[in-house]
From TrEMBL:
<dbReference type="InterPro" id="IPR006918">
    <property type="entry name" value="COBRA_pln"/>
</dbReference>
<keyword id="KW-0325">Glycoprotein</keyword>
<feature type="domain" description="COBRA C-terminal">
    <location>
        <begin position="180"/>
        <end position="373"/>
    </location>
</feature>
<dbReference type="Pfam" id="PF04833">
    <property type="entry name" value="COBRA"/>
</dbReference>
<dbReference type="Pfam" id="PF25079">
    <property type="entry name" value="COB_C"/>
</dbReference>
<dbReference type="InterPro" id="IPR056900">
    <property type="entry name" value="COB_C"/>
</dbReference>
<protein>
    <recommendedName>
        <fullName>COBRA C-terminal domain-containing protein</fullName>
    </recommendedName>
</protein>
<comment type="similarity">
    <text>Belongs to the COBRA family.</text>
</comment>
<dbReference type="GO" id="GO:0010215">
    <property type="term" value="P:cellulose microfibril organization"/>
</dbReference>
<keyword id="KW-0732">Signal</keyword>
<dbReference type="GO" id="GO:0016020">
    <property type="term" value="C:membrane"/>
</dbReference>
């Protein structure tokens, strides 16, 4: 709608990513005004800085900055400042995990701008921090068909004067210089661990024993001198052989006649970071024969049409959807039971292990194929127990 010196706009953020969500401290949306606009008020959000409003004597704007940044309100904000889809602390769920909470919105009143569709100029240089870098936003594009609103009874439709859209895409390469998660593999009694980038700081006791990185810089999470990285997230990472904040362990636990069982453990080695609404994506050709899963939620992503080889796993609400900091309780785990397809099933040459693994949308470092544990289709002990008696029987019967 129009106001005497500008307009009132409704801004909505939609997270269309299937398995990447925006975690605390939440999203931060910014832009640059084309003219000398000011923000009179924000409903359902707030500008991070007011800026220089010294030219205004009576009514002081909410923000006078040329490049304002808007953040979401926290849960429990006053009712007179709330609106629909606000007040989540900037947290946006992934679309496949919780579509109802994958949208946020706020209302902003803009002054000192055009008051017609011909005189109003769109903002430029949109930015989205969630909460750190990684997103690149394109220019604002005006839609030919403005948004239409339907009354609750469905008898009338009203129309916005203008609607424009901005698309932001994510790049893990831009966001993180080093990996944030790694995959380790094991089968029965053999283990393979991944060597992630070493932490450039030492352990507290200056030895190789597990401890906390307290000096220098961590190459993947920024400075840990004061326990904070450049994005405001704590980054005290436990010194381990792999030096990863998150480790996903895929363990081939049992091999039955018609089924085989896998145990997945996600461990948090970061002493300064909890992971709320975490999720895990794994690609394996046998997910089309998944029979049961314990302790985790599951949905098939099907990125290749009818081929069901990619699974999205996440925690059960109020049970294990919150991955705690490093320590005795800093892990979640589940077991998956797969049915064997006799025409395609094998445990040889690393077939039992996933092709790709993502944690919270970030791709984990995986071992090279030649480092995968070698798994025979049958147990070694069973083979010896059958062959040895047969050889002894042949030696005792010279006429055989």
């Amino acid at each position: 709608s129009w106001v005497p010196d500008g307009y009132v706009a409704e801004v909505s953020l939609f997270n269309y990513q299937q398995y990447r969500h925006i975690q605390p401290p939440g999203w931060k949306l910014g832009w640059v005004w084309s003219k000398k606009e000011v923000i009179w008020y924000v409903q359902g959000g707030q500008a991070t800085e007011q800026g220089d409003c010294s030219k205004f004597k009576e009514i002081i704007p909410h923000s006078c900055k040329v490049n304002p940044e808007i953040v979401d309100l926290l849960p429990g904000a006053p009712y007179n400042r709330q609106r629909a889809n606000c007040c989540k602390g900037g947290v946006l769920s992934s679309l496949a995990q919780d579509p109802a909470n994958a949208v946020a919105s706020f209302e902003v009143s803009v002054g000192r701008s055009g008051t017609t569709t011909k005189t109003l100029e769109l903002p430029v240089n949109f930015t989205l921090k969630a909460p750190g870098p990684g997103y690149t936003c394109g220019p604002a594009t005006k839609l030919d068909e403005p948004t239409k609103f339907t009354t609750p009874d469905g008898s009338r439709k009203s129309q916005a004067h203008m609607t424009w859209t901005v698309t932001c895409t994510y790049s893990q390469f831009l966001a993180l210089r080093y990996p944030t998660c790694c995959l380790s593999l094991s089968a029965f009694y053999s283990d393979t661990f991944v060597s992630c980038p070493k932490c450039s700081c030492g352990c507290q006791d200056n030895s190789t024993k597990p401890g906390i990185c307290v000096e220098g810089n961590s190459p993947y999470l920024g400075s840990v001198m004061n326990g904070q990285d450049k994005n405001g997230l704590a980054s005290l990472v436990q010194c381990t052989t792999h030096m990863c904040p998150i480790r996903v362990h895929w363990h081939v636990k049992a091999n039955y006649k018609e089924y085989w069982r896998v145990k997945i453990t996600v461990t948090n080695f970061n002493y300064g970071m909890n992971y709320s609404q975490w999720n895990l994506v794994a690609q394996h050709p046998n997910f089309n024969s998944l029979t049961s899963i314990t302790s985790f939620n599951y949905t098939a992503l099907n990125p290749y049409g009818l081929m069901n080889d990619t699974a999205l796993l996440w925690g059960i609400r109020h049970y294990n959807d919150y991955l705690l900091t490093a320590g005795p309780d800093g892990y979640v785990q589940s077991e998956l039971l797969f049915r064997k397809d006799p025409s395609t099933f094998t445990l040889r040459a690393g077939w039992a292990f996933p092709r790709r693994v993502y944690f919270n949308g970030d791709k984990c470092v995986t071992p090279p194929p030649d480092a995968y544990p070698w798994l025979p289709n049958a147990s070694t002990k069973s083979t010896i127990s059958v062959i040895v008696p047969l050889v002894l029987w042949m030696l005792a019967n010279p006429y055989f």
